[in-house]
Specification:
The chain has about 220 residues and is an alpha+beta fold. It contains nine helices and four strands; from the N terminus they run E-H-E-H-E-E-H-H-H-H-H-H-H. A four-stranded mixed β-sheet has the order 2-1-3-4, with helices on one face.
Length: about 220
């Protein structure tokens, strides 16, 4: 049994990414959640994560940290199912996943993930607006070129690229991003995903039952 250690479902976009991929691949795992910015997190994180950050995946004696590394490891355990089969599509999926992993700093800063929140009114800076437009272009181009056979960026198969952009769909839903028709359609497919809906319910539980703040301080 795998163990995935994550942070808050309301706040932790990096935790969401491998969680979504593991769900879609059908790999069973135990979920351990450490609430961010709490004494419990500070007391327990070292026993789980060499980097003292979440997420981290435990497989026996092995620790795998960083969202993209975890997704790659999970894909390998399932015979490479986390990437498209076609070579060109796979190269594109890897490129846009890496771009998400290392880029979009302005968007992340201005619109932090608030998974269960809606109608947040936070104006975009020009740099963040450029990030939104770049995401729109990525989604639209992938759907047009590779995604006609299914709801995801590369068709019927849910890939690491979809997992990497899932938190962005939540951001756009929370803050009301203006999107093209193609990007809006993909965002709607992401938001209707039963696994993502389960994550959102977890975020709602954190706010309503556990008293976790709806927004990061």
């Amino acid at each position: 049994m795998l163990t995935l250690v994550i942070g808050d479902k309301q706040l932790s976009s990096w935790s969401l990414r491998p969680w979504m991929l593991l769900r879609h691949l059908g790999l069973a795992f135990e979920e351990v959640r450490l609430p961010l910015d709490t004494p419990r997190f500070r007391e327990e994180i070292a026993r789980w994560s060499p980097s003292r950050r979440v997420p981290v995946l435990i497989d026996g004696e092995l620790r795998v940290w960083d969202s993209l590394a975890i997704c790659e490891y999970a894909s390998e355990k399932d015979g490479g199912a986390g990437w498209p089969v076609d070579g060109a599509a796979r190269a594109t999926a890897r490129s846009i996943s890496a771009e998400m992993h290392s880029g979009f700093a302005a968007l992340r800063s201005i619109w932090p993930m608030q998974a269960a929140s809606r109608d947040l009114d936070v104006p975009l800076t020009p740099q963040a607006q450029a990030d939104v437009e770049r995401v729109d272009a990525i989604w639209s181009e992938c759907r047009a070129r590779y995604g006609r056979g299914g709801p995801w960026l590369f068709g019927k198969r849910y890939t690491i690229a979809d997992a990497m952009y899932a938190p962005v769909a939540l951001r756009f839903n929370s803050y009301g991003a203006g999107l093209s028709d193609a990007a809006r359609g993909y965002c709607a497919d992401v938001l209707s995903d039963p696994h993502l809906q389960a994550w959102i319910r977890g975020a709602e539980h954190e706010i309503a039952v556990e008293g976790r703040p709806p927004e990061h301080p």
